[in-house]
Structures are given as C-alpha cells and as structure tokens.
C-alpha cells in the first residue's frame, strides 16, 4: 500500500498526516461490502451539461440508482451490475450516453468513485484549506492530464466521501457532490 501512496508528499523521515489518513480511508473502503448514498451529479458533455440527483444503494452485487431530480425523471430507477452495458429506466431510456469512448456514463459514476476509493492508484493526496482530504488517482503509466483521472474528497474525521470528480484527458466530465454516503 505504501507504493500506491508514493506521491502523497511524504515528509523527510516519516509518513505525513495526509498519507496516514489516505491509508486509513483506503483500508476502510477496501473492505466495504455495501453502501448507500445520495448525490448531485453534474455530467458535462462539453456542449451540454446535465444535472441529476440520485439515491444509490450497493448491496454487494449490484448498484440500484433512483433519480430524485429533475422532476421530469424523478422515481426512475436503474440497476447496474459489472456486466451491464446499457441502462433502461423502468422501461424508458433516459438519453445521456457515454461521456468518452470507453463508455463512462453519469450512472456509472458513483460505483466508479467508490471503486477508486477502494483500489485506485493514488498519485497525490493533501489536506486542503477547507479541512477536507483530497486524493488524486490515475493510471500510473499515463502522463498527468491524460486518460481517466479521479479526484476524491473525504471528511477527515468520519472518512465520509464528500465529493468526487472524473476527468478524461484533463476535462472534468462528471462531478458528484454527496449529501449522504453511508458505509453499511
């Protein structure tokens, strides 16, 4: 695990506060079997931006999403599994489409953020002025600003996931602001 945190800015002679906190949080999320969340999601397609609010629940096998805003789609649900590639919401297709050639979608954002908290390669971490722990994750073989990069913010005391962003080639495609994230 220390190798995964090599870019966290370790002070000479020891492990820094941000690195210790990132290790503790990673350990908790690594054994996480179930979770629930409520989040506001902004999906930026470049020429159009969509805002959604969702309630989500992961039971260890699948993620169930229920849209709670905007009003035009409130109550529609989706179930995501490892193998699911297309989303159908209660018999209706909600047009969002992938944000990148690899199929990144707003619906897949919440599970992707949690999986990154569990297993992502940490390229940097620091305690920010607002008191939150920021953890940056990316492919260790990609140059900064290329490929998929994920940034996570955690509450240092509760280790609650507060916010997450998914960026593709330096462009933030998805932002999730969590009003609730419960490790169950």
Uncertain regions spanning at least 5 consecutive residues: 1-7, 9-14
Intertermini distance: 24 Å
Strand residue percentage = 35-45%
Largest sheet: 9 strands, antiparallel
Rounded radius of gyration (Å): 17 Å
CATH homologous superfamily annotation? Lipoprotein localisation LolA/LolB/LppX
- Summarize the amount of helix as a percent range: 10-25%
Assign the structural class, choosing from mainly alpha, mainly beta, alpha/beta, alpha+beta, or little secondary structure: mainly beta
CATH architecture identity: Clam
The dominant shape is globular
User: Given the structure, what is the number of helices?
Assistant: 2
- How many beta-strand elements? 9
What is the class in the CATH system? Mainly Beta
Strand order of the largest sheet: 4-3-2-1-9-8-7-6-5
* Mean pLDDT across all amino acids: 85
> What string gives the helices and strands in order?
HEEEEHEEEEE
């Amino acid at each position: 695990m220390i190798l995964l945190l090599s870019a966290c800015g370790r002070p000479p002679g020891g492990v820094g506060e941000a690195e210790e906190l990132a290790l503790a949080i990673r350990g908790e999320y690594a054994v996480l079997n179930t979770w629930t969340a409520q989040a506001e999601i902004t999906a930026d397609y470049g020429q159009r931006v969509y805002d959604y609010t969702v309630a989500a629940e992961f039971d260890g096998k699948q993620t169930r999403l229920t849209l709670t805003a905007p009003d035009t789609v409130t109550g529609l649900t989706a179930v995501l599994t490892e193998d699911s590639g297309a989303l159908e919401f209660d018999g209706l297709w909600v047009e969002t489409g992938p944000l990148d050639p690899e199929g990144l979608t707003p619906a897949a954002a919440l599970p992707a953020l949690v999986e990154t908290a569990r297993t992502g390669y940490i390229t940097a971490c620091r305690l920010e002025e607002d008191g939150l722990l920021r953890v940056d994750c990316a492919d260790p073989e990609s140059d900064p600003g290329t490929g998929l990069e994920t940034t996570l913010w955690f509450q240092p005391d509760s280790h609650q996931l507060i916010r997450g962003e998914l960026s593709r080639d330096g462009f933030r495609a998805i932002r999730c602001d969590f009003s609730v994230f419960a490790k169950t």
